[in-house]
Structure formats: C-alpha cells, structure tokens
Design brief:
Layout: E1 40-45, E2 51-53, H1 55-60, E3 68-73, E4 78-82, E5 90-91, E6 97-99, H2 102-107, E7 115-121, E8 126-131, H3 132-144
Antiparallel strand pairs: 1-7, 2-6, 3-4, 3-5, 4-8, 7-8
Protein name: SpoVT-AbrB domain-containing protein
Organism: Lentzea aerocolonigenes (Lechevalieria aerocolonigenes)
Length: 149
C-alpha cells in the first residue's frame, strides 16, 4: 500500500489588530452591598407527603438533621420552631426537609406541588411559611401603589 504525504496544515496569520477605540463606553456601576439582611428566604414546593426542602433556611437557623420542630399557624403563615419538651414534633430528615402536618396544609389549602415562601428569622429562631397566594396578595397591594407600574 502506498500512501501519499499530506502537507502540514499551517493556519493563516492573524489579521492585523485594529486600533482600540479612544472613547470607551462607560461601565455600569455595581451597587455596594447593603447591610446583611436579618432574614433568609427561599421558595420551596410541597411534595406529596407534605415535606418541603429547606436546606438554606435550616442552615441559617442553625438547625440540623435530627432536630425536632413544632408547627403552629397564624392567619397568614405556618410557623415552625424548634420543639421544646412536651410539644408535638417532627424531625428534620437526612435530606434536610421539614414536615408540614396535614392540619396546617388543610388550613391553607396546600396541595402537592404548591409553592411556599420560606422566611427564616435567625435572631428569633423562627421559620414562617407563606403560601404563594398570600405573598401574591401582599405584592399586588404594594405594587398597586407604585406609579411606574
């Protein structure tokens, strides 16, 4: 078998560099970070068993796997705290999920795949879960007062 030699591919020389423009566009100013928020927030979806993934807020509250939590409700939120002795409690599982009892889910009409705004207040060690319907009504009221919307 005879093979023919193939010439080596040599890329063409790069084009001559263009002169850089003398007038550069101004760069956008990056805002200086404000004070650290006293709240940690995330949005989570309720699963078919009433659990929600909550790694970010659990971490901000210094809660860990195996901690016992107690659930109560207010007019606009489900409230979760660390359980004290004598309170009914559920345990933070190894997936760092929190359990919402069926009574609390029923009170707010929560179904599987509904979303919640989770608001952790580390200073008071409280986690508040707001149904998206509540958050939507709050934001709608706020934005209705804004002139530019």
């Amino acid at each position: 078998m005879t093979e023919a030699a193939v010439p080596l591919f040599v890329p063409p020389p790069p084009p001559a560099q263009l002169e850089s423009p003398t007038d550069l566009l101004p760069l956008q100013q990056i805002p200086v970070a404000g004070p650290i928020s006293p709240l940690a927030m995330t949005i989570a979806k309720v699963d078919h068993s009433g659990r929600i993934p909550a790694l970010d807020v659990i971490t901000s509250l210094n809660w860990t796997v195996g901690d016992h939590t107690h659930v109560s409700t207010s007019a606009d939120a489900i409230i979760i705290r660390r359980a004290t002795s004598g309170q009914s409690a559920s345990t933070i599982d190894c997936r760092r999920q929190l359990f919402i009892p069926s009574g609390a889910r029923t009170q707010f009409g929560l179904q599987a795949s509904d979303r919640l705004l989770l608001v952790a207040a580390p200073r008071s060690a409280i986690l508040r879960l707001h149904p998206i319907t509540v958050v939507t009504s709050i934001l709608t009221a706020y934005y209705s007062t804004q002139r530019d919307l």
